[in-house]
Amino acid sequence: MRRAIVFVLGLLAGLALAFTVPLGRAHDADTLANSAPQKNPLFINMTTGDSWRGWMGLHFAHATLKMGHPVAVFLNLDAVKLAVMSGEQEKKPSMQRVPRDILADFIRDGGVVLMCGPCLAEFGLKLEDLVPGVQMGKPGYTQSFIFAENARTLSW
Questions:
Q1: For the residues of the chain, what is the DSSP string, one character each?
Q2: CA dihedral 118, 123, 127, 132 (to 10 degrees)
Q3: Which residues pair with 45 in a beta bridge?
Q4: Which tens digits make up the pLDDT trace of 102-128?
């Protein structure tokens, strides 16, 4: 009998807590998105020159920028090819645009695109060969985006 009383009291206490303590909604994506500070910057380190993978990363960067977050994309290794104005860029059926076009819109909308100078030279390219608005990254300047207050970094 005593066990039954303890069980019932425990059950009642649990129910009382369940209905009086507000349940967290941390797993609700809308709640998380709406509660995120709008000025948390994102730094994307992009290393792929593959047209489709690059388009996916740039599309993600542009969508994040449109959500109100400052975004800087650092193109390095063979990702520098994504910003080249001339030549053909593969366009798969799932892509609305080629990477250089999304880069131009991203820059126009306030995104920052930084270029790895040695990587550019490796491919025999110059800043003039790239989408207008691409900036040369350099020690100290690039890090100012990586270590900005509340910055998040992502590798693509």
A1: -HHHHHHHHHHHHHHHHHHHSPPP-TT-HHHHHHHS-TT--EEEEE----HHHHHHHHHHHHHHHHTT--EEEEE-GGGGGGGBSSS-----TT-SS-HHHHHHHHHHTT-EEEE-HHHHHHTT--GGGB-TT-EE--TTHHHHHHTSTT-EEEE-
A2: -120
A3: 74, 155
A4: 999 999 999 999 999 999 999 999 999
Per-domain residue ranges of the chain: 29-155
Least confident range from 9-18, 41-50, 62-71: namely: 9-18
The CATH number assigned to the domain with range 29-155 reads 3.40.1260.10
Q: CA-to-CA distance for 144 and 13, rounded, in angstroms?
A: 53
- 21/69 Cα distance (integer angstroms): 33
Tokens of 147: 């270590």
Q: Record the pTM.
A: 0.75
